[in-house]
Every structure is written in structure tokens, then in C-alpha cells.
Specification:
Blueprint (H helix, E strand, L loop, with lengths): L1 H6 L8 H33 L2 H37 L3 H36 L7 H13 L1 H16 L4 H24 L4 H24 L17 H33 L3 H13 L1 H23 L3 H28 L1 H6 L5 H14 L7 H12 L4 H21 L7 H5 L1 H19 L12
Helix pairs in contact: 2-3, 2-7, 2-10, 2-11, 3-4, 3-5, 3-6, 3-9, 3-10, 3-11, 4-5, 4-6, 4-9, 5-8, 6-8, 7-8, 9-16, 10-14, 11-12, 11-15, 12-15, 15-18, 16-18
Length: 454
Amino acid sequence: MRMLRQNTGDITKGVIWKQLLIFFFPLWFGTFFQQLYNTVDTVVVGRFVGKTALAAVGSAGAVVSLTVGIFTGLSSGAVVLIAQHYGARQADGVRRGVHTAMLLALVIGIIFTAAGVALTPWSLEAMGTTEEALPGAILYLRVYFLGMVPNVVYNMGTGVLRAIGDSQRPLYFLIAASVCNIVLDLVLVVGLHWGVLGVAAATAVSQLLSAVLVVASLMRSHGEMYQFSPRQMTLDRSSLRKTMQVGVPAALQSVMYSSSNIVIQAAVNSFGTDAVAAWTAYGKMDVLFWMSLNAMALSITTFAGQNYGAGQYGRVRQGVRSAAVMSAGFTLVLSTLMTVFARPILTVFTPDPQVLEIGVEMVRFLAPCYITYILVELLPGAMRGAGKSLVPMLISVFGVCVLRLVWLFTVVPVYHTITVVEASYPITWTVTTLALLVYYRWGNWMPREEVREG
């Protein structure tokens, strides 16, 4: 922990792979605790309420991912802007970026709350949510959207901290939120028998706690250029424009990803409650891969942002290579473990034999394909750090989303099996990876000269 404190902040100097790992591990553990309480939600629902409730929470998950992806994408614009100013030691730019980002988060949260509560039934019905799971899914989503403001504020606030190289405090906040959520799950669901409502309420309260902690932390950062004061919140035109230049393409990419996943969810829904429950359990099982890759992608975005702002372009490319090698290593290990231990892990979420059979098939088909997805996250992450978000977004949207939708609407109706639905993932990941590699190698996303290598 002492080493982490010494290296938090300036990541424009030092051994690249070590700095990436120093930034990566707090992010990884933070995501771990976030996923821990999401997983506990699933376990509690599956074990103490039943597979219909498990399917309800799973059906709502696609909509949750869509909304989270939008404001996470927008917050990435603020992260890049602040990281570049911080790397260039431009204090005024950092301050304007922080206060613009926090006001933007408040506005987005209010809009999403109103729209989410109103549109929840329509969105779930449009996905073809099963009739027995629909009431629970509507209840879960509406309670979730009522907690949207603190959710957005928390994500934007932790984005600010990541931009200046601090991935430790977000970890502490998520640990506190995780403990809160787990305790409330046990009290509200197991103790008071609130069912899906209890799980949703526990999530909303834990998000509120994490938002309070991150805002208080930013306000108490006395003497730092990123200190936050509610009175200074303003939509600075320059900061807002630069934030949106990176954030809007990232948000659109996330929307398209989530939209294609919603179509996937609808396709899975057509196979019945057992398939939906299996898909939900599998989604919780493979979280180790996604959270590890996401943490590395966030690390390379901040690393690229600070080093790009400092003019160290060669160091950015070296960082991408190091991140890719490390990501490939942990992906191969995780894929192997998931494939071998699929059944006992899935049994944690549900004892139902039919659900288990479907879930094991899903894991053994998809886990070995994860290696094809690594660069789909890392390359756009580095390019966003350099302030270039549009072209990577277009490549990813076409490769991952458009091709996936074509597959789902042309091939799946003819060969209507779960395996054919699953095949849309590795096929589109591979195509997108190849296209991104071409742009990374020959595209004009960053100056080629190397300045102030350190």
C-alpha cells in the first residue's frame, strides 16, 4: 500500500508495466467489490426467492447495462480531459474540467431518473421479457432508476479521481458500498422477505453511500487542483465541448453494445425461463474476466491521457503493448479455470438441474473465445486517452453491434439454438479486433514522433 501511495498521481515517468499494475490493482479490487454485491444479489435471489425472480433480475440487467454504459461513456470524456490537463500540469484546466463534469453528472442523473421510471414497462416488454418475470423486472428497474442521481455522481466522481491517477479511494468507497449492500440483502431479502424489492432497495442505498463518500472526498482535497466545491459548479463551454468530443462517441458505442446485448437478451428470452436464468448465472460467473479487462482498459486510458498531455507519445504505445501482454496472460488463465470448473461455480447461483445444464454449455462455448476480445477494449481505451474517440467508436459499432444484429436477425431465426445465439460474440469480436489493429497501426490517431520519453 505504501508503494501505491508513492506512485499515485503522476504516471508519466517510471517503469510502464509496474505503473499500469499499480493503477490496475485498486481498480480491479474496486470492480471486484462492485461485482461482489451484484453477485450476492443474484445468489440471494436465486437461492431464497427462486428462478423466476432470478430471471426477473437478469432481464432487467440488460437495461441497467445500457444506462450505466451511457453515463460511463460520457464520464470517460471528463476523465480524458482532466488527465490531459493534469499530465500537462494545467491547474486551471483541471479545475474547470472537474466542476463541469460534476454538474453534467447531476443533470444526466435527473434526466435518466425521469425517463427510466416512465419507460421501464415499455423497455422490458419490447425485449420480450417472459410474462412470469415481467412484474419483478419492472419493480427492480424502477427502484434502480430512483437511485440514478447518486449512481451517476459516483461514477463521475471516481472518474475524476482516476484521471489524476488515484485508483485507491474509489476502491475504499466500493468496499463500503459492498458491505452495505450485502448486509441489506440479508436483512431485506432473507430476513424481511422483500424479494426483488429488497435486492433493488439494497442496491439503491449502497449507491447513495458511495456517492456521498466520493463527493466528500473531492471536497476535502484541500490545496489540490482537483478539489471540488458545489458553489463553483458550472458548464464551462470549452471543457464541456472537449468532454463531449470524447464522451459522446464513447457513450454511443456503449449504447450500441448494450442495444445489441438487449437483442441478445430478447433472443435468450425466447428459449424460456430456464435459459434466461442460466444466462443470468453465466453472466455473473464470467465477471472476473470482464472486470479484469475493464480495469486494464481504464488504466490504459488514464495512462494514455496523462502521457499524451505530457507529449510522450512513444510511451503511450509502449503502455498499450504492456497492457495487451498482461491482459492475454490473465485471460488465458481465467478461461481455463472457468471451462474446467463451470458446473460447481454455477451451482453457487442455482441448484436447478435444467438451468445448470444450459449454463455449463454457455460457459464451455464462450470462455475459450475471450482471448479474441482483449484488443476491442484496450485499443479504443488508449485512443480515447489521446482524445480520439470517434473512429474507434465507428469501428467497434460496426464490428460488434451491426454485424451482431445482422447475425441475430438472419442466422438465428433459421438455426434457432442457444449455441447459434452465443456464436455472435466470438465472430464479431474477431472482426472488430482486426479492424482496430489496422487503424491502430496506420490511422492518424496520434503523432508518431516521440517527445520527452521518460
